[in-house]
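for the writeup, i need someone to sanity check this before i put it in the appendix. the sequnce is what the collaborator sent (i think, or maybe the updated version? ugh). structure was predicted straight from it, no edits. if anything looks off just tell me and ill rerun, i have time this weekend
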Amino acid sequence: MQRRRRNHEEGWLLSYADLITNLLLFFVVLVTASNMSAAKMQKIAKAVSGEEMPESLSKIKEEIDQRIKEKQLEAVIATDLTDEGLELSFNSGIVFGSGRADIQPEMEDVLGSMLELLGPYSKRYHFAVEGHTDDQPVTKGSKFASNWELSTARAIEVRARLEKNGVTKDRIRVEGYADTLSLPEEQLVGLNEEERRARHRRVIVRVY
């Protein structure tokens, strides 16, 4: 009787097991990548290749920071690159009047000149416009029932300017947070109470 050739006949099992393992790892990578922000992906790509990706959030930040420096707008807008995306934080106390959601006329051109830099990237990224207030309640007689309405109304105004600069509405979402998201304490060191409140009054455009 012919002896069974175990190694030859069952060798395919090893190849099959390797294939299944590789497929599993492939799908794990896909799932991980689908849940990873663009900012994180770009950091990983730069670490691997040693080069910045074209139209990366870091490159956009450099372009915006240069415009801020040229126009001396450091008191009006600040940028920050986080794992959630590129954040452009507008000082509400300067862009808007106290307790109001209409952009001050003298700030229209300033705001437009910054937001126009984002237009060319509207097909590559999505945008969130976040409205924030300080912890002081709205004054009696205000058209806004609470800071929720005020923060959202300000975000909507900035959203409209984004659309004017070429970002389509399907790429934008609006979020109003009132005073529920405090800034990290390290960003408030050395500020008095009024300065801390002023820093919290902000509208953020997040590119992600």
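Residues 111 and 128 are 16 Å apart (CA to CA). The longest strand covers residues 85-91.
thx in advance!!
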